[in-house]
What does this fold into?
Amino acid sequence: MKGLRVRASALAGAMLGWLLPAFSLLAQAPARAQGLTLHYQERAPYSWLQADGSVAGLVATPASQALKDAGVAFVWARTPSQRQLALIQEGEGLHCGLGWFRNPERAALGKFSRPLYRDRAFAALARSDSPLKPGLSMAQAMALAGDSLLVKEGYSYGPQFDRLLAAQSQPAQKTSAEPSQMLRMLLAGRAGWMIVAPEESRQLQHEAGPGAAMLSEVAFSDMPPGQTRHLYCNRAVPDAWLQRIDQALAAQAR
It folds into this structure.
């Protein structure tokens, strides 16, 4: 009898060892079957909502096409940038943010796709009463008017400019607002300038309407080439999905 009990216990342990991974896979299956949530911001020309409920733009169009080509089901969700970061870096489920710049801190907490798009070099969108003039270096601009610079909290402006921001004795003004709201802050005189990609600068000046007369785009003498924008996904997104997405993006680039 004792031998039978030992064998029964061993059999039960073996079955439990087999069942636990199976239950784990079953728990993951519904989430993967539903696909992932693709988070975007209403931010022309990179991404904007169309009348049919889809999202288009410089980063949205190649991203959605790559997901379709890769056979990865997804749904769009309009989500503020800080909420996107929280979902990708700390949340559960399957989430990707659209058009994120890659840096080491983010890469340590999530996964990036191949580039969706490369920006042109950053410039300043400045009020006409700002001391910024074309031809200044980034450091000179910060020394002249660093305290009137408006930056987006949690956003990266590239390694060089991020270092200048971190070393600034008079810190720049920070906001969690989206670019359209930041534009309104400039027009209201609450800040003197903001950093933008030229692609976005044109759109913002158009949104400013008559107020565009008090704004100008100022190029820097030493701004490096623009950064690449990617899908930024949480670690729960399977590597196999990202590999297929990357293959689809590579095919688009050919």
The chain has nine helices and 13 strands. The radius of gyration is 24 Å. Confidence is low (pLDDT under 50) at residues 4-32. The CA atoms of residues 109 and 148 lie 32 Å apart.
